[in-house]
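Researcher: Structure prediction, please.
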Amino acid sequence: MADIYISIGSNVEREKHFRAGLASLIAYFPKYRHSSVFESEAVGFKGRNFYNSVFYANTELSLAETCALLKELEKQHGRKASDKKFSPRTLDLDLLLYDTVICDTPAQLPRGEICTNAFVLQPLAELAPHLPHPCQGKTMAELWQAYDKSQQKLWKVEFSLL
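Model: Predicted structure follows.
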């Protein structure tokens, strides 16, 4: 069994797609936890604000199978393979951590955005404060404490799955 952490984001009909994406993850990983939902400004492009959260589960799927599943779920929720990196998203599912695996394929792990984006690091630190980053030698809470919070605006939002 591997522990996985997945970043969830949406800024196109964000409440609808975020809720549907979370429900899809729960269908595959019924024993889960997820962070609070945060709203953040778009990074890298001008666009509507995002809803973001981090989802935790454990799985018997391989790393490659996990990555393929996340791509398929994005596709089912309107994401196109041709979408640019910095562009609006119906659903964005990024594998942040797969146990303590460090690799570049089939995904970059640990995901670089953990240390560079508040909308990834804050929910991850909330969900797993004592989890050590596989490369940094610090816990997620320590990384969040040291993060320059003036870089990106981020705030919690009330969100119910129901």
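Model: The beta strands are 2-10, 32-34, 37-40, 50-59, 92-98, 154-157.
Researcher: Thanks, that helps.
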